[in-house]
Design a protein that fits this description.
177 residues; Aconitase, domain 4; 10 strands; globular
Length: 177
């Protein structure tokens, strides 16, 4: 878990205009800079599920299933990206994390995200493969923006994995039945 998002080349744009390299972030509302692991554990203790906004080919170069496992264990429930590396997208679903893509021409940068926003995605309990949905982004000043997103759970099998909290839980429930 500590190694997830700890690559020295990762650049978190929550930490300045050009971002800061390494596994660091800012915890809100405290505005304290800390490791991604420490912030995730603090959010978990506060009962705050996490959403990642990312750019193009999210997951490219990752160590595949380990990266998706770490993402889930850190409390991330959704990743909203411009696009995904194909296998990493399916690994996220297999770990119970729902992947979404932004509409063409929309990026985390074009949304003006700073990291202090809250994100609400209604309808996850009735989600369908490749369903168009909306992420409601509430900015620190109270402004709300509806962001169109596409669910990248692509098949009914993947939907079963997601609804069971991941492929391992799906298999265990199937064996127990």
């Amino acid at each position: 878990m500590r190694g997830t998002f700890a690559n020295i080349r990762i650049r978190n744009h929550m930490l300045g205009e050009n971002g800061k390299e390494g596994g660091f972030t800012i915890h809100y509302p405290s505005k304290e800079e800390m490791s991604i692991y420490d912030a995730a554990m603090q959010y978990k203790a506060e009962g705050v599920p996490l959403v990642i906004f990312a750019g193009v080919e999210y997951g490219n170069g990752s160590s595949r299933d380990w990266a998706a496992k770490g993402t889930n264990l850190l409390g991330v429930r959704a990743v909203i990206a411009q696009s995904f590396e194909r296998i990493h997208r399916s690994n996220l679903v297999g770990m119970g994390v729902v992947p979404f893509t932004l509409d063409e021409g929309t990026s985390w940068a074009s949304l003006g995200l700073k990291g202090d926003e809250t994100v609400t995605i209604d309808g996850l309990e009735t989600i369908k493969p490749r369903q168009k949905m909306v992420a409601k982004v509430t900015y620190a000043d109270g402004t709300v923006k509806d962001v169109p997103i596409l669910c990248r759970i692509d098949t009914l099998d993947e939907l079963d994995y997601f609804k069971n909290g991941g492929i391992l839980q799906y298999v265990l429930r199937d064996l127990a039945a």
